[in-house]
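Trying the structure run again after the queue cleared.
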Amino acid sequence: MYKRMLLIFLYMFIISLFSISPAIAETLFIRGDANFDGRVDLSDSIFLNNYLFKGGSSPGCNDAADVNDDGKVDISDGIYLNNYLFLGTGSPPPEPYPGAGVDPTIDELGCGVEVKEISVSKCGGTSFEGNCKRESNEINEGPGGDFCTYSSFEECCDYKTKSTAIAYGGILDAGKEVARGIDTCKDSEILKEFYLNCPILTTSSDSVDYVEKDCNDYNFDDTKTYECTNGQVIEVIPHFDYGCSDGACSFDRVIEVKKIISRQGDSDYCYQKKNKCNQGCSQGEYDCDTNSECATGLVCLGPIGGASDGCCKEGQTWDTVNFRCNDCTTGTCCDVNGGKFKSSSTICNSNTGVVQYSCKEGVCAGNDVWKRVEQQFCSGTSSSCNGRKDFADSVVATNCGGSQYCSGSSQWVTTQLSCKNVQCTSGVCCDTSCGNYAFKGNDLICDPKSDEGCPWGTDLGSDTGKRLGGIVCSGTASTCGDGPLRWKDWFVKQDCSNVQVCETTGGSASCRNICFKNSDCGTDEWLDQRFCKNNDVWDKRKNWVCIDGGTKSSSCDASFTDQLWEDCKETCRNGACIVASCIDNDADGYGAQISAQCSKQGIDCNDNNAAINPGALEICGNGIDENCVNGDNLCGETCTDAIKNQDETDVDCGGVCVSQGKKCVNTKSCKIGSDCQSNYCNPSTLKCENAPACSNECTQGATRCSLANANVKQTCGNYDTDTCLEWGGDLTCQYGCSNNQCNTAPPQGADLTITLLAVQYPTTPIAGQDITMAFNIKNQGTQRADWIFWKLDTGSPDSDPVNSLGLSLDAGKSITVFTKIKYATRGTYIAKVIVDYQNTIVEINEGNNELTRSIIVS
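Done. Tokens:
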């Protein structure tokens, strides 16, 4: 017992040696460390909130709590710290931060730590048990045992231990409270585990769980805000709720507590809305007491001071029954039930008395007369019918039948229009154009005619004349035959010379030459129709004769005579002299070759057939020349009489005479090319001529794709009047032309083209300035194109931009390319952009890959 009392006395003496007197000392601090725990975090924000609004502990260092360094500790410091720590919108605290230091700002605040003596009886007892423990795990005879006495714990009431004081026991600190550093959660509190070791008389340590922090202490409410919506003024208070998690206080959620301050109709609604939300009541909201409680442009109407005053526009009235702003209460354009002006689309007068008419369908047969009536609308700002005027939809005023039409125009007029009867609807002398349908006048020729003659006489030098005219319309009928024949004045058709006279033949007038001598009529000529006569060669000769020479009645005539062409030494055969011997193979009295000494009767054209010889009877049309004269003649055909008596195209040539060698010379009449010795009959003049030279000859029936249009196929043939073959018969191919034929399906493949080339910026380029060019590449083909390269030719010696990475475009897609160029000097340049400039992509059309434009550089 004595030893125990001695220990107690000694312990109390030691305590007296370590008692600390109150003192204030300057120290370093970190700005924002409001609870002075050596770091800036959430706990500092909570500490400030508790201190400012809940009566919590004062800051140990006011300079540290002055987060924004404005010389005072207030709500702005908590907001500053929250913006920086949690919202990411604020700046860090001023120096000293983040490290500890002294305050560089001179103000009334300071920084010191106040240490107070803590008595054993702070919580009303000397025993630790029952004051600070909770969830204790006592291994031995109690917290610390009977010989382990504790001096005090800071704020150890109600199990809220912010920090634990030193527990003195035994001899000179032989017993201490030792924290194990293990934090656990119990409800919303953090429990810290301690060892209590008093080794003088105890054999083992005790462990006790103490309440270190109550996370509910961190809960706080933020600044109130207000919402004014749906006729209510609502107070909103955000509450920040904390809890315990993994042995630490953590932010859980934000709870908004809303409370309705005032509702529409309350006597202070507009006041509260204006005061809390800085919004006056809008049109139709109530209750207001002054104009200032209404939104801009509105006034407070009604029994001011009552419970039914509303905010309305100037000129409106307040409806105390329906609680609304009335624009009006009576009038044509007043919606009495709603108290509003009717809209500007409301018709208030369906007929102002103004009526318009029109042939709006046209003036063709059967088109009706239409009318429309003017109507008036409400203005939307008045109860009177004083708005815009407009016309209602048009309706048919008069229905014109098929034999009538609307007489007027398509414009709307106030004059009433009518249906007009048609005079006629068809016929050459009927004007069938819409709006007319009348007989054409008698000055219109309906059956054109022409006449030729010699209106100025038939003397030498008199010209030929021609006049135009015809039958004119009668003006009373739609047919042409009812009118008279009228002629216009004569005009010169052909200017006849002094050696010509006007002559009319078969209704055609021409200048005829008069002759003075035979040579004026032409040059005598051989007709190259040689034949054998008296064993000599004879020919037809044409000889010209001038009859009544030198008079206007003179005429030329030609005579045809047989004349000796060549005197044969022996005999003549087939129009040519021959030398022959006397041979008669078929013993018919005619020899194949006959000489002057031969006794045979004549030349046998087939000396191996006795039935064929010059003396045989010709059988017409059997294909055999029995008499050896001009082949197998048709019966009665004569090609040697100088007369056009059968189907010859001219005298003794052409027709079946061709088979007898009688072809026409140039200038002779013909029907087909085989009629002529030149084998060319001019289809225009039907005269034998030399065939024209062909420069564009092709192979008959061959085809090709047109050189001018890749979608057209051409065929080789004769498409004009000459004998030459040319390309023609153009046929448009639906899917284009390739390999000389029309494609039967759309071509497959890519087809790149440039659809745009423009100066993007600046629109007025300057020499030496960077110019942004834009151009558009489009794939208008049917397949995707890859590795597309382009080149921009600037038109100047400067380098031309190209793309180094190939582009890709799906079918039907396009892309706009931007590139920069520069011109060193002023001038006008021709820029050209080329897509697939290396020609590596097979395209449907390789000819549309370029686009140029002019660029003026100032």
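The chain is about 5% helix and 30% strand. Worth checking whether this holds up in the mutant runs.
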